[in-house]
Amino acid sequence: MNRKTRGSIKIIPVESIEVLNHRERNTKIFEEITGNIRAVGLKKPISVTPRPGPEGAERYLLVCGEGRLNAFKALGQKTIPALVVEVSDEDAFIISLSENIARRQSRPLEILQAIKVLQDKGYDKKVIAAKTGLSAEYVGGILLLLNQGEERLLVAVQKGRMPLNTALAIVRSGTSDTAIQATLQQAYDSGELRGRQLLEAKRVMERRMAWGRTVDRGVPRKRTGITSSSLVRTYQREVDRQRLLVKKAEFAQQRLLFVTGALHQLFSEESFVHLLRAEGLDLLPKYLAERIVPTGTAL
To answer: From 3.90.1530.10, 3.40.50.2300, 3.40.630.30, 3.40.50.261, which CATH number describes the 1-106 domain?
Structure first.
């Protein structure tokens, strides 16, 4: 991407700035931005690139800082400090997208749709990865889910509720409840899904089966595919896993009791203690020493 990195700070009219890549903002976050600017002023200038306007008027495309620009407008400010840089329309758009992707407060679907926009502009996954700082494998997986309309899985991946590989495996398994449950089971067995993440993944799949692939936008969706029997099977699998976990814990506890009992007897023999000391093996972790070494015995 060819761009000029140097620029100059100028005070420019807010009405002369055109937003190239508009994004919706959380009301609370916008109020925080506005409150901070009202209290301490603008800490970081926005970035713009100049464009010719009608009859020679100065016009600018916004590169970075839409939230700050909107806050200035909300506060009734007529001008705003801006870093003026010379970049092409394409570069300005990509810089704006990259900023949105890097921003922690970005909504997951905004980030994912930004990747889709770059694909629509003709970039392949390697170029998109280079421009956004994401891996090519991640971009490729996200694009597959986007093209399949899997918004629920996309949000789950972006929020860390489900690994990307698991989401892709679910899409490839089709719409069969049995195949999807088998995919989740395989992800659990392989270690990709663990603990709370497993429960989150199940909730995502239940919503996907009940309300469809796309995220709710206030329009009720017809329930499809979810049955009481599938919920019972899911519950029974979880119960079976919990029982197996309890059995493994009991077995491990029995082994631990046997080992500590045997070591306790050995440490009761003075000759064994002398042998350990001679070999330089007389140090034990405190929690083991308290369980094994008889009271009053020193190694």
So the answer is: 3.90.1530.10
